[in-house]
Amino acid sequence: MTEQWSAPTVDGPVHATVPVPGSKSITNRALVLAALADRPSTVHAPLRSRDTLLMAAALRSLGIGVEDGPDGSWLVAPGTMRGPARVDCGLAGTVMRFLPPAAALAVGDVSFDGDEHARVRPMTTILDALRALGADVEGDALPFTLHGKGGVPGGEVTVDASASSQFVSGLLLSAARYEGGVTVRHSGRPVPSLPHIEMTVSMLREAGVEVDDSTRDVWRVAPGPVAALDRHVEPDLSNATPFLAAAAVTGGSVTIPGWPARTTQPGGAARELFERMGCAVELTAGGLTLTGPDRLTGIDVDLRDESELTPTVAALAALADGPTRIRGVAHIRGHETDRIAALAAEINRLGGDAEETEDGLVITPRPLRGGVWRAYADHRMATAGAIVGLVVGGVAVDDIGSTTKTIPDFPGMWSAMLGAR
Ligand SMILES: O=C(O)C1=C[C@@H](OP(=O)(O)O)[C@@H](O)[C@H](O)C1
Ligand SMILES: C=C(OP(=O)(O)O)C(=O)O
User: Which residues does 3-phosphoshikimate bind (predicted)?
Assistant: First the structure.
């Protein structure tokens, strides 16, 4: 059952401080690394939302201990993974791409499935790569089964990762535990979301794993142990962007506490994007504060590196005072939904002017009217609808529940933010 949600509209600037839950990308990397580590780990301030709860549940079904710590942390007790097990990936790219390479180390069968929308997300590249590295995999997309033999030879593999950086990240995360380690070479159109691969490399190094990424499009992971983690998870900076956007579109000001001065999250680039659109952004000890302008400026932007920000940028663009061109994100047609088609359809349904291009969108602002904004089961489509609804009366998001993918209570956070006006 999906839940239609009337997006609240405001008639003045939004002023609020909004604490944002932990990063999905860091939490799910930390869980996989902790499961492969040689001793128990603690993950502090993890995100607890559908994507990470599914990862935790999947690891438990494989025999890994994932217990609640006293302070909201997760305590992870590693061990030999064992099938038979069934993994529900939901719609989480990080579960469907990060867990199979780890589960290939299990003893026994591990079957994977997910939501209807997940079954059409690209998977062949990583499943073929696992076969090439010596794993026994049945299937080319969800659902599929791994016949685990308790170990994987590893070696060198060439992949076309132009559809998702997660193919590379997934292989690298488990690579140290493969007998010969793993070398991944990318061959094809440019890899999107490269900072997410850098996040993977950086977290592997934190866990004592030797990674050579000195050659472009080649990553070499040496075989060896994975050290236990004691890891704090930063706020999810991509999930912070709808809240910052609330200040941007109303000329208000929103502070996100705990915004890191340095980060491996691509969402960190949101600062510069908002500035280019005319916002003032300041990082202090209290967090990142964004103050919106009288009118937002349209921009020409390549979002290949931070493609998960596209829905927020598109929503801002529809409300700006000049055209925006978004480039470099052809692969987001394979995200939770075809985001290029979905954004164009929903902006146009409300009377806007959004045109699909091969690798992005051209959005020319027009006065918008209320109506149903469809989420397509996609959390970031839903939050984009909330941004538009803040200044366009009568917008209803058809499936606000989709936001639980990466934010446990988006409607509650949104109304708390507006209540603080
Ligand atoms: O590794 C990760 O945590 C992610 C990588 C990116 O995927 P793509 O490379 O498929 O864009 C990003 O969009 C996704 O939200 C999270
Ligand atoms: C693309 C995204 O998610 P996933 O991790 O499921 O790929 C996203 O969160 O924008």
Answer: 24-25, 29, 164-166, 193, 308, 335
